[in-house]
Amino acid sequence: MNRLQSILLSCMLLLGRPFAAGFEPLLKTDFARNPVAMGWELRAAGDQPFDGGWVEARGTPQRRCLVVRSGYWQTPAIRVRPFHFYRCDCTSRAEKGGLWSAVFFDADGKEVVADVYDALDGSADWQPRTFCIRGHAAARHVRLRFHAGDQPLWLKAAALEEVDSAAVAEWADGIAAQNPALRYTPPEKRCSRLPRTMKTLQQGGRLRIVMLGDSICNDTANSLYEALLKRVYPRAQIEVVVSVRGGAGCQYYKDENRVQDYVLRFKPDLVIIAGISHGYDAEAIRSVIRQIKSHADCEVMVLTGAIAPDERCREGYFKSSSLPVSQALENFEKFTARIRRVTDEQRVEFLDMRSEWNEYVLRSSRPIEWFLRDPIHGNSRGKQVVGRILLRYFEPQ
After folding, report:
1. Bridge partners of 300?
2. Which helix (H) or strand (E) holds 129?
3. Domain limits at 296?
4. Confidence band, pLDDT 50/70/90 cuts, at residue 320
5. Which of 292, 286, 301, 209 is nearest to 257 (CA)?
6. 43: closest CA among 90, 76, 65?
7. How big, in percent rounded to 5, are the helix, strand and coil portions of the chain?
8. 396 pLDDT band (50/70/90 cuts)?
9. Residues 146 and 191 occupy one common structural domain
10. Do 212 and 262 meet the contact criterion of CB atoms below 8 Å apart?
11. Are 186 and 392 in contact (CB under 8 A)?
């Protein structure tokens, strides 16, 4: 065994699982060396200064680790390819949990809005963690970040490698196995307005899906549902473009030629409009659909927003709306019916994701926090729920 093989074997044993065949690790460290010398950076979060360091690892003599009490540790920039999949393995502990994120950068070094955020569940002991990500359509580099929670986060190993869709699907299966079974039965007449999408899935070819919306749309895309679809439709080449902006819905995208900037420039075969930030304005969704259909030969699907609890959505809308309370309440309560009417009139596909999410969470007998990383957004378990609803919807009838 040569020196390189010995190093790789040591890393595999450290992380508890082998690297995927055919791919070289892009990042691997047990923090034996000073991470700053390896390009890691300490960053502040908001107004709070960074508080952390490179210290001796508790319970593992002669070993060192990272700790962060405020802010986050950030890896060096790592080269990635659009639409390719990557797996991050790390070993961490944080009694009240922490956060992990992947932030992409384009060819000009500009940060891409569509990032990946997830929770690190609380644990008093060292625990191995695994997350999978997709290289954004505009990405050239990625930086991984490890964020402090209410208590310090400790990190004693980290690795990143490219993997294939089969490995991602296997990872997703493991996350979904932590949840109660999904009993969703999609409608029999589904996908009737997506004939070309279904033909490409079944017969093969490239299917580029643009996900348009807000951070909830981003979470839905970050379920990596295309890896699950690839298992069902192995001949299809599915590319998911995440085109989002925090707190933005169709009332934002309909103006100032934003449909061109956020949708048409990616040359989609299917556009999925999703999220909770449309201002309960069904006519704004109609406007975006019309603009897409008038300038692109693609199909369109609209999802109602999921994940964020209803009471949070209602409270946020009432606080931001200038309408009388009675009118705001009517908009909130009738929004789904109005979207359905718009999609019927525009002859585009419609999935009431909100109803399916609410029913699943209710039947799960789990607290809503089981599926969330913060009061609004999903963790890996929550993302797998919406991702698998989409899988069921697109599966053969």
Report:
1. 271
2. strand 123-134
3. 168-394
4. confident
5. 292
6. 76
7. 35, 30, 35
8. very high
9. no
10. yes
11. yes
The CA angle 259-263-269, to the nearest 5 degrees, is: 135
- Both 303 and 353 in one domain: the answer is yes
Q: Do both 133 and 204 map to the same domain?
A: no
- pTM strictly above 0.90: yes
Q: Are residues 204 and 282 in the same domain?
A: yes
Q: In this predicted model, what pLDDT tens digit does every residue of 35-80 receive, in sequence order?
A: 999 999 999 988 888 999 999 887 666 689 999 999 999 999 999 9
To 10 degrees, the CA torsion angle through 358, 231, 87, 68? Answer: 10
CA distance 117 to 147: 10
Q: For residues 147 and 174, state if they share a domain.
A: no
Identify the weakest region by mean pLDDT among 57-71, 172-186, 255-269, 348-362: 57-71
Q: Are 27 and 169 in contact (CB under 8 A)?
A: no
CATH code, domain carrying 183: 3.40.50.1110
pLDDT at residue 144 tops 50: yes
Q: For residues 159 and 176, state if they share a domain.
A: no
Structure tokens at 229: 């679809």
Q: Which amino acid belongs to residue 335?
A: F
Cα–Cα dist 283/254, whole Å:
10
Q: Which helix (H) or strand (E) holds 209?
A: strand 205-213
pLDDT tens, 284-316?
999 999 999 999 999 999 999 999 999 999 998
pLDDT value at position 25? 86
Q: Do 154 and 264 reside in the same domain of the chain?
A: no
Final residue of a structural domain among 163, 192, 209: 163
From the list 239, 88, 237, the residue with the least C-alpha distance to 162 is 88
Cα angle vertex 250, ends 295, 282, to 5°?
105
Final residue of a domain: which of 136, 163, 190?
A: 163
Buried b (16+ CB within 10 A) or exposed e, 212-235: bbbbbbbbbbbbbbbbbbbbebee
Residue 223 and residue 332 in one domain: yes
Q: Mean pLDDT across the stretch 180-205?
A: 96
Task: Quote the number of domains for the chain.
Answer: 2
CATH of the domain at 150: 2.60.120.260
Which two structure tokens, joined as six digits, stand for 12?
């595999």
